[in-house]
Amino acid sequence: MGVPIVTFLINRKMHSNKKTARIAGLLYLIIAVNGFFFLRYVPSKLIVWNDASATVRNLTASQTLFRLGILSEIIGYTTWLLLPLVLYKLLKPVNKTYALLMVVFALLIVPIAFCNIGNQFAVLTLLGKDNYLKAFEPDKLQANVLFYLNAYDNGNQIGSVFWGLWLLPFGYLVFKSGFLPKILGILLMFGCFGYLINFTGNLFFPNYGDSMVAKFITKPGSIGELGICLWLLIMGAKESKQIVKAA
């Protein structure tokens, strides 16, 4: 009687792990799609960083796209609140301390991001038709729009510290789990240092963002995040071999 019961419990646990992993993968995918839209696509279509006049023309002509970017960002970071909690449930058996650290670093990203969205609403205010805005000369108004867009970009730089830090415990847990690919854990941990190096480089070197280092240092982390997202979503996760053996 004992062996069938143990087998049933193991199978039930494995099914639970797969379901939790696939929920995490789905949340990760929602975040990735929204992140690409508001961090890459929208700025590439609207913002000309060295030309305030062209930027304002683009924003005025495509204000709906800019607003959709804000909505996408809110959806992305709201989903982000759920992801570390689901991952905690999946990875807590590996190491509870590191799982808690992962959750703390991940959740710290959200208040930074929502405060930073205020800079985008300031841009919308400047693009509005309120009478008091007539006090601004056109070139001064355009300069202010670019100022707030730069402030938003700087806010993302601050957030990138925690985008990196959460990957270190997350990558370690993936590496040690026994039910997720170790190579993805290694790439995620590399991603942590990539984000931190880029933050430091941007802080101290004005043209660092155009360097080859800046363009490629976060690639391992990006590959790791995309890889773990797809692995969780498609493959799920099973009970670790060590736990199954012990049972």
Count of distinct strands: 0
Summarize model confidence as the mean pLDDT: 89
Structural category: mainly alpha
Question: In this structure, how is the largest beta sheet organized?
Answer: none
Instruction: Kindly report how far apart the N and C termini lie.
Output: 14 Å
What number of structural domains do the residues give?
Answer: 1
Spatial extent as radius of gyration: 22 Å
Enumerate the spans where pLDDT stays under 50 for 5 or more consecutive residues.
Answer: 5-13, 242-247
| Count of helical regions | 10
Tell me the helix content.
Answer: over 70%
Strand content: under 5%
List the secondary-structure elements in sequence, H or E.
HHHHHHHHHH
Describe the global form: elongated
Instruction: Please state the oligomeric state of the protein chains shown.
Output: single chain
Please provide a written account of the structure:
It is a single chain. Helix 1 runs antiparallel to helix 3, helix 4 packs antiparallel against helix 6 and helix 5 packs antiparallel against helix 7 (182-204). The protein has one domain (2-246). It has 247 residues and is mainly alpha-helical. The longest helix is centred in the N-terminal third of the chain and has 45 residues, at 2-46. The protein contains 10 helices and no strands. The relative contact order is 0.13.
